[in-house]
Every structure is written in C-alpha cells, then in structure tokens.
C-alpha cells in the first residue's frame, strides 16, 4: 500500500474545507491553549530534524484542540543574524567586514533581507506535507519594524532596571565574524581538539634570596602559545607548595604536585610556599610589551586563587586581553591591558616579524622562537574541549573589548524559581542540563559588531566630557528625542473640477490648470479662519500648482498677507500615462496600494519617490527655521506620505489607516516633525544604516550630539523576546499579555541544544521584563528533543553524505509513518539513530495494520454507516473491544496530559496491533465473511465502524492523514474533519467491564500457550486439531474465541494423559496433537482456500469480484476434492471450479501439497 498519494489527497481536502482554520474557530475563545512556535530561519533547507521537532509540536496542539481548547498557532521566522550574513558574504565573495562596508551596509542588508526567504517555499511545502498545522499566512518576522520596536522597549526596560550595562570584558570572540558571542552561544559549539601545549622557561632575575638560586626559571605551561607575546605577569597559588628543583645544571620552580612533568632525572632542592614567590620579577619570553609596561607592576609574580595544580605546572601565564581571570587580575593590580592581536585575529605591529599573521595559527612560529631563545622546555599534544563559532565553525578566541551586557547574574534566583515552575520532558532537564546552567548563569554578552540584526537602541553623547546615555524604547521615544524645531499645519488644496470628476492631474507644468470651485474656496476660507483662531502661522510653503497657489493665497490673505513661498517638492504625484484619466485606474491596477511604494505606471512616481522629496523638503525647513509655525499646502498623496514619514508609520500601518489619513479637499491638520529611519523603499526601517542616521541634541550638556552605539543585539535576543515582540507589546495586545491570554505559553518543544538557546533566552527575557516581580515562566511545559543522527551515531551533514531528504522519505513511506517513528522509537529526549528500515517498520506495524482493518470491514460491509453513538454489543468480543477502546482512550489522554507522547503513542500502537488487528478483527473474520444473515453482518459492521472511527480520533493527533482518510470514509464525507471532533473519554469502568477485560486477557494468554505447544511440535496453525483442554472456570463465550484462534474442533475440561496430549503447565492448558486423516484433509482444504485468496489479492480483486478456477491433480488422488468443491467455490467467490487445463487470461498459478508427495495446481483469474 502506497500511503503518499492518499496523504496528498487528504491535503487537498483540507485546503478545500479550510480544515486547520476551522479547527481553531470551532473552539471557544475563553478556553485557550497557548503554543509558541520557535522561529526557524528560511535561508537554509529544512531537514529531517525539523520533522522531529514539528511532529512533537503538532501532536500536542492537535490533541488539545480535540480536547476542546482553542489552539492558535502562529508561524514565525528568525530572519537576522550571522548565519544569514555569512551566506551573503560567500555569495558576494567577501572575506571580511571591510568588504561589507565598501559594498555598502544598506545594499548588504537588503541582500540579507532577500536571502532569508530563499527557501520559504520549501519550508511551507514541508509544513503542509507533514501535516503540521500552523498559520503561515500571518507569521511574526523578527526583522519587522513593529517586532523590533518591542525589542527596543524590552531593552529600554532593562536599562531602567540597571540590567543593561556596558563594560570592558573578556568574551568569546570570532575573528571571522568580527563579533563577540554570549555564553549560551558558546555552549553550542564545543568540540574536542588536539592542540600544541608548551612548557616555557620564565627566567627569574635579581633574586636576593637564599632559597632561589641565581638563574632559576619558573616553569609555565600554556595551551595557547599565541598569547605569550601579550604576557604581563605570572600567577601562583599562595597556599600551594612549590618545589625548587635542579635538572641538568638548571634550576626550576614548579608546583610540588606536578614535578612528574620533569621526568625522573631531577633533584629536589627545597619546598617553598607560593606566597614566597609573590613579587619575584622575571624576563618575559617576548619583547612585544616591554615599552608599554615600564611599571613596577609588570613582569612580576602575583598570588591568585584561580591557580590549581590539576594539570600543568601550577603557574599561570597572564595575558590580560585574552582571559577573564587574567583580565580581572590586571584590573586588581593596575597592570596594563594591551592587545597584541587585532580584531581580525592577526598579530598587530607590537609583535615584530609576525605582524598580519593569524595568531591562533601561529603556534608553530611561537614554538620555534621559544626554541631558538632556549626558553622551550618541552611541547606536548593536548586534547581538550574548545569552543568554536556555531555560525562559521572557526575556533574562537577570548578577547577583551567594550561590550554591552545584560546582568543575568543578578536575576539568578528568579531564573531558578521560574525554571522550577516548568514541567520538563525529560524531567532531568529541569535540574540537569538546564538547571545547572542557571545555577552558574553568566551575564549575557549582548552586543554584536555586525550589520544585519536588531540595533541596540542606545545613544551616547559625542562630547568628550559628557557621559550622557539614552535608550530609546519606542517610536514615541524617538519622536520625543528628535522633535522638530517648528510646528506644521498640513493643508490640502480646495476642491477643483478634477476632484469632482475624479481625474488624475499631476503633470507640471500643468497641461490643464484647475481653478478652485466656489465651494472649494469656501472650505479653504473656513480652514483659514480656523488657523487664525489657533494663533495663525508665520510662513506658507505651497506646491506650484494653480489649485494649491490659490489655496495658499486665500489663507495668506485671511492672515494678513503671510509670506507664500512656492516649492516644487510639494508638487502633486506625477501620474505618467495615467494623466487625465479616471482615478478608478488606481483601484483596478493597484488593489494593494503597498505596491505603489515600489512600482508605478510608466512615467509616474512611486510613493517612495514622492515621500523622499517631501521628507527632504521638511528636513531643509528644520535646518533653516526654528520656532516657526509653518503651513504646507499640497496634495493628497504628498501630504499623507509626509505625515507617514514624520510620524514613523510603517507602510502596512499607513495603508490600513489611509482613509483616515487622507485629507479631504480644503481640510487641514496639525503635525509635529520627528526624524525616523526610512529605507530606500519608503518604509520604516530600524536596521543599519538608517537607524545610524538618527541623531539628536544632548539634553545634558547642550553641546554634544547623541549618536547611536554601533552595535547589534545578539540574534538570540530576537527570538527570546518573541512572546512580547510577536504581539507588538506593549503597544498592542497589552491586555492579552497581562491577562494571560497569550502569555505564558502552555507548551513549546525544540531540540536539546535549545537549552542553551531559545529555551534559555525565552526565560531570560521574560524574567528580565517581569523583574522585580517575576510571577511566571514564559512556558509551562517544554519537551526537549534528542538529536537525529545517522545509523552509526554520526551527525548528519552534506559533507558526510548522510543527509536524509524528508520529502523523499515521505514519498516512499508516507509522512504518517515518519511521524509515528519519531513518536515511538524512544524517549523524546534520547538521541535517535535514524534508519529507514525503522520507518518502514512503523508503517507496517501500525499505519498499515490500522488501514487494513478498515479495508477489511469496508470490503464485507461497503454500504454500512457508522452509528451516531456507541452501538449495543451482542458478543463478548464486541463488548470487550468497546471496553478496551475506552480504557485505551483514557490511558492515551492521561499520558498526553502529562506530555508523555512516547507512552501515549506506544499504548495506541499496542491497541491497534494486538487488540484491534490481531484479536478483534481476526476473531471477527468469520462473522464478516460468512454471516448467518444480513442483519448479523449489519450489527457486526456497526460495532466495527464505531471502533475504527473512535480509533481514528485517537490517532488523529499522531498520524493526521490516515486518521482523516479512515474517518471521512467511515462517515462518508469530505466536508467534515476528524480533527474537528472532541475525544470521548470515559473515566469510570464498571465491575463487569473489569471482569470482561480480565477474562479476555486470560483467554489470550491461554491461546498463546496453546500456540506455543503447536510451535514446539511443528504443527502449523492452519492445520486443524481435535481438542484443547482449558481450566474449568473459562466460560463458553470466551473458550469459543480460543477454539477459533488455535484452530481446534472442541474444548474439553478433563485432563488426558495418553501420548497425544501435550501440556503447558504454567497456564494449565493442553493440546491433542493427533493428526487423523480427516484432520489432515481439512487442513489441506483450508490451505487451498488460503492460497486461492492470496491469488485474488495478487490479481487486485475486490471481495465481491467473481473468479474462475481450474485445477489439476495427479491421477492417484483424483478424487481429492470430492465433496469439497462447493465449499471451496463458496469461500473463494469462484463462479466456476473445474478440473482441467486452464485457458484463462491474466491468470495466477498456485501449488498446494495434498500429501507428502503430491500437489494440486490451481489457475485463478477474474471471471469473464
């Protein structure tokens, strides 16, 4: 059975009936289940691991929907960050940040913006193909200006709470990407590497101590030889005992616990305390910092509590710019912090001879130089865990630089308390991987020196003596900071004939000059009088068109002859080929006015072009005038576009409120000027370089200019703030957040590495926003998923050639099978060693068995309908399956309520495989194939269809396609969906129900015991036997089921002890294994029927299709079928059953042994 075509048909039906949308709308708004979609990046292809994560997201959302909850699922896209930049850099052939700046930040960021959607179509196709229901029509997007405004607000709150601060710190730094990384980013990129470590002589000088001989060297071990040119001090443990040793006429100082590094041939002279070494001076191994370190503090030994003796020599070489402990020691003792390595990772001009060489790759040069100077004691290969950039995969270095931080260490208790309120699956995540991370939480290194991302909204005064800082958290803050020096009144010209006729008239010089209509002049006169009452104006600027000049003149006259200045930048929009034509063309050809910002008819201006000229115009006014009231007389489009720009509205916001924005002819409004970042497409854009152009006067010193700090925020901050930013909090949906309607999430799920990523940043940001009154974590339940590896336990990658295409996998086995594999293979938090055969197994053992059970019932009862409520069961088998179904439904629901998806799925799998298919359906075959009456068949079918329908509902969250196909087929509809149903959970079981379950459990154990006896004596199940012995308490209703299952003719209750009876003593059952000629014959007839039925399947025939059979048997058994031909024909649906040579077309031939040496040959074909 190929399930992929079936799934594709289900998808089409879902589209037609808007199944997902309606599944949400059918549920009440006051019963919500909140789900957050962790935003993926669409600049890379989706992979198999995305199927894993999205399956676990989908199953819980579908389940909660089917339990009556309203589950709104909004898709999201993570659009910023270095992975995007790196991809674009590769495409452009760039090697460093200088290349980007020469290319232009605006152009580079536009390329980044375009690239993030490269694989959007593939993502959305996979989303639909796997049955992941999430709203992709209105996703939240992290580069959206409204999203970014919320991010600004979060940071402004952090600044007000003293959580956001600046500092000079040593942080992990990527020289390729040119930016620092946060601790949670670094945690994602550790790899085991082998580096060259060195033991170096640091020669002590001017010793006046009897305990330390002249010419002694302090032996120092380091795994970063490239930092040795930056050495400024040595550190020892003051309480650590050190040995002074002699070896081959040299003297060394080394921690007493580590003298073994010297080998065997040395002599220990004495032991001294680390405290006695403090103050010793030495010669540095390189001269790079000598001229920068002419103080007594440099090249001296200091005591430090971070020194240990677990490895090395018990002495630490101090290079302050390249280690946090080193840097803190330098601050404490006033040591200079001087870089010998540039931000690009190359040695600077302080390192003579190696300037421009990559420092991290220069270890061999350093070692050779040490050897030539007789400073290298020895070198060793050293295996250790080292951090690599998670974005470009190059090794990081620790580098001291100016950064902005979030003070997460101050929120540690709140973070831990919030984590304690989260239900984690697996449970060990709470106090293990995640909890341990929080206990040792570091301040978040937030700032990044890059281009495509959310800029830090921090402005600093450029005056040398001023320390003013301002964090702008909203457009309102920006408007206040950049508030103009003048006030403005926008006036639209009075009505003309072109307005009343609805014509375009934007050419200048004017091809047709339109005078104001009398009623238009009256409206303008009224406007002039209103302006006069409100204090008048100082100057009027007007468009050069006749209608605007006439309007300006009326206002000027009313106000006593105020000066009127004509400026072409206020002119009407140029309409090109539309000039003189009906304005209805706009609605016809541009139904979505957003397009007008980037496109226009031939010869016409775009809205963006018009906006640019009116914005340049008002900016010039701001430079030229101060404290003036200025009237701007123009046209509808230029005025609303000017207002859009100086109010900081997005294109979407503008189009939404366009009817309210556009002034009617002769009307006016008062506006304030503010400067907002507008991109080349005319839209509000908080990205670089546009945000960098926002400057304003310093209010603290009155002389300086506030300029933005040139940093971006860590991209993980974007996604971590999504509960707030995706709703544009606090500017929109404020009540929904604060009343708990959309925050916190009831459920999220991602891979285990997100404990250092999204899981953590969600918690960090929400804790920061709520501080100091943290009341709730950002999510209540989280499933952390193990990684998907190949069958050998290796990470999947293109370079290794072990990538699995999820679409090809779905085409082969169906997506239900892939989902089911992930749900059942192991605990969700465990690593998945993926093999295709496991997916095939998932399809065979569950999906196919369920579907085949449905096909069996439909085959024999094609026209029967499912009852609207649970049917009455006549047989004990039917009563049992209905009770068992209820028990399973309760069990599955209980597991899912605990977010235990694996056990829920395995419980359902066990029911489908062992209860439904291998017991209920198998034991019902005779009732369907050979019913005593049509009424009996109808009763049996109604029970079976009810069971299948209810099972389809239980399966729906897990395997949505096969569940929908079966449910819709049973209910004979394509306009309803199983996913709109609510589960029926029966929570109580009667005593009789429990007795039936227990009895059926026992009879199945007895059956298994009897079948084991058969197997031990190599008697196949299809061979009838005469009798079986059962315990006396087994009722006939149950024993008859066993008789059919184990294929015996009778049940006895007395034990026999002759040789033909074989027993299973554990279950107290016995089997008579004698094979009489009659039993052998019956077994042969049944085998013939079975083989003929298999031939029907091979021919692709339905149960109701007639067949023709010819057979040939050896002469010595010619009468073998006498008395059985009618039975064979009846049970196989044969219209003819004749002995002789076949003349059939499209026939299938089968052979059946009739005894130890003879066979019968059947030829089977459709009857024609």
Automatic annotation (TrEMBL):
Pfam families to which the protein is assigned, alphabetical: Anticodon_1, DUF5915, His_Phos_1, tRNA-synt_1
EC code(s) of this entry: 6.1.1.5
Catalytic activity: tRNA(Ile) + L-isoleucine + ATP = L-isoleucyl-tRNA(Ile) + AMP + diphosphate
Keyword Protein biosynthesis attached: yes
One annotated GO molecular function: ATP binding
Domain Methionyl/Valyl/Leucyl/Isoleucyl-tRNA synthetase anticodon-binding: 878-1029
Location of the protein in the cell: Cytoplasm
GO CC list: cytoplasm
Keywords: Aminoacyl-tRNA synthetase, ATP-binding, Cytoplasm, Ligase, Metal-binding, Nucleotide-binding, Protein biosynthesis, Zinc
Domain of life: Bacteria
Group of enzyme by EC: ligase
Ranges of residues in domain Aminoacyl-tRNA synthetase class Ia: 10-465, 686-830
One Gene Ontology biological process: isoleucyl-tRNA aminoacylation
Catalytic site: 493, 572
Chain sites annotated for binding substrate: 492-499, 547
Cofactor field: Zn(2+)
Subunit description: Monomer.
Role noted for this protein: Catalyzes the attachment of isoleucine to tRNA(Ile). As IleRS can inadvertently accommodate and process structurally similar amino acids such as valine, to avoid such errors it has two additional distinct tRNA(Ile)-dependent editing activities. One activity is designated as 'pretransfer' editing and involves the hydrolysis of activated Val-AMP. The other activity is designated 'posttransfer' editing and involves deacylation of mischarged Val-tRNA(Ile).
Family: Belongs to the class-I aminoacyl-tRNA synthetase family. IleS type 2 subfamily.
Name of protein: isoleucine--tRNA ligase
